[in-house]
From TrEMBL, chains A, B:
The keyword DNA-binding applies. Signal peptide: none annotated. PROSITE patterns: HTH_TETR_2. This is TetR family transcriptional regulator.
DNA sequence: CCCATGTGAGACATCTTCGTCTCATCGAAG
DNA sequence: CTTCGATGAGACGAAGATGTCTCACATGGG
């Protein structure tokens, strides 16, 4: 099948390689191309055939992560229902991609002034707009800016993914921990 | 003055170098020894005279960050007053070191299974114990584990430092953003 | 059966960074 | 002024990673 895989946007092999690369780079962001190849169960030469170089690999990971995050944004249906339920759905939808997102968030910090993948600006805008809508509806407090809430969301998702990875918190608590902290904070409120 | 500087635990020069190194590495964690030296306004050779190698430099940064964080823990007097006020004091005390801490938190993720600086375990224990006490006093909710609250604290401090660095949030809001989100979350409560 | 494609292994030159070293210079103490 | 210590600049080899290339092999289609 010389045309195998072209029925999809991304070859199955290629995606599997990206998956394992994401898993490895999430743990060790300085991993070698050779380590990435070994982790994917392929040779370094084959890795280079799929991705021109390390930059191309990282860029592909960016696109994959962005694609998954936007899919999560879609799946969360942030407009429907209450903002709280929307946030719960978003965190739930983003959980499978949390590790990859954590890597990308840290990775983006390296691009000092460089242009960031335009897609991330779009995603940021969607999250930020979600928080702003929640504020306008009176569901979110207005003394925390949407920009900060957006950053905090990314930060907590990354922290959560890493804490689980390090074994400091239980994997099953991922969604609950993040949503509850993000929504209600640590203070014991009268409502409980 | 052949003995200059030895009146202190750390030579003034040495500390200044560490400060600028921390500032640079916070922004670009992969910075070269040469870049670190340039940023400190000294030659690469001199940098190597102060710190045997990159490992030694990072270790020195770890010690500096740990020292500052423990000083912040002391200054916060976490036992006195309410837990809420203690947390406010801690975040306020930690703000000047936020960038360095952000770097170290990310850096620690690289030490896969390696032993972590024992001092960090002590610091973690103090923070974790603070949250546990708050729970026992009925000031913090008990459905979020102290371990997670500790991780979230680190994560938000790092996210805050980075968000300011990136210009996405105002520097003056650092303490308020973090404390308010950590304590009360994003949900608009009846108390307001 | 034969061929084409994709692959793994490895060789290879190149590049970057690192750590060390030398040497000329500068400044302060004596 | 002289001397000693610290510094900056630069050269140097070592080590590691990268990107390219070749070659043998396996598999699947014709």
């Amino acid at each position: 099948m010389s045309h195998m895989g072209y029925v999809r946007l991304m070859t199955l092999d290629r995606e599997q390689v990206l998956r394992s690369a994401a898993a490895l780079l999430t743990r060790k962001s300085t991993a070698t191309m050779d380590e990435v190849a070994k982790a994917a169960g392929i040779g370094r030469a084959t890795l280079h055939r799929h991705f021109a170089g390390r930059d191309a690999l990282v860029k592909a990971l960016e696109n994959l992560g962005l694609q998954e995050f936007e899919a999560a944004l879609d799946a969360a249906r942030l407009d429907e229902d209450t903002s709280e339920e929307g946030l719960r759905r978003l965190i739930a939808a983003v959980e499978p991609s949390a590790g990859l997102m954590s890597f990308l968030v840290n990775e983006n910090q390296l691009f000092e002034g460089d242009e960031v993948n335009e897609g991330w600006n779009r995603a940021d805008a969607r999250v930020s707009a979600f928080f702003r809508r929640g504020q306008e509806r009176g569901e979110f407090r207005i003394d925390l800016t949407p920009a900060w809430l957006t950053e905090a969301l990314y930060g907590l998702v990354g922290t959560g993914a890493w804490s689980i990875q390090a074994g400091r918190v239980a994997a099953q608590d991922f969604q609950y921990m993040i949503v509850e902290l993000l929504l209600g904070g640590a203070r014991r409120s009268v409502e409980q």
